[in-house]
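Please fill in the sequence for the structure shown.

STRUCTURE ENCODING:
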């Protein structure tokens, strides 16, 4: 009887240790374009990767320490215009963030007012049209998570592949973004590909 009780206690202890380890792993999720939301979730790029428009930067953890997770972003904002019920063709600036899993768009109305999803429950959906220098157009969708501040381009049917192909080419790629439930709110900006391809190769 004592042996049986001892075995049962041992099994329970092993189970508790396993549960504890599982919780620890969940708490150490790596930062990514999808999960990061603060204005300064990343730190300076590597000096040797400075070139033209596109650079590589690193996400930081909760202690503001650099992680190994890298992504591509434009060092200087892209220019464009936006319209809504209160204004037409006002100044817009934008950034595009690319990592190995996600492509995200960050928009700034009037050049400094970051577009955010004010709902903490419901995602905000967008229609996105990309136009390449050869006038090929691709319709996509995007999602801004509850409380988020960037539009994640939905993977869909190879959407990410089409965006990457366009950015790795030459010339300027145009993006037109509109709220799916309120198309009067829309954004247009232009993205020079420049050195994206050489930086993307370094990211991979």
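FILLED IN BY: designer on duty
SEQUENCE:
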């Amino acid at each position: 009887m004592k042996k049986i009780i001892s075995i049962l206690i041992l099994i329970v202890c092993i189970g508790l240790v396993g549960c504890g380890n599982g919780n620890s792993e969940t708490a150490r999720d790596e930062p990514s374009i999808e999960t990061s939301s603060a204005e300064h979730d990343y730190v300076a790029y590597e000096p040797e990767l400075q070139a033209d428009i596109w650079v590589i930067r690193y996400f930081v953890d909760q202690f503001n320490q650099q992680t190994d997770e890298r992504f591509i972003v434009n060092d200087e904002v892209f220019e464009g215009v936006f319209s809504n019920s209160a204004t037409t063709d006002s100044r817009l600036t934008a950034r595009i963030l690319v990592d190995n899993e996600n492509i995200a768009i960050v928009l700034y109305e009037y050049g400094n007012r970051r577009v955010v999803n004010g709902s903490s429950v419901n995602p905000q959906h967008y229609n996105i049209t990309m136009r390449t220098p050869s006038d090929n157009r691709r319709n996509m969708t995007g999602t801004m998570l509850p409380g988020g501040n960037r539009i994640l381009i939905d993977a869909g049917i190879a959407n990410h592949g089409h965006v990457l192909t366009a950015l790795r080419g030459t010339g300027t790629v145009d993006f037109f973004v509109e709220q799916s439930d309120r198309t009067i709110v829309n954004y247009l900006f232009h993205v020079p590909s420049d050195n994206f391809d050489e930086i993307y190769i370094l990211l991979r």
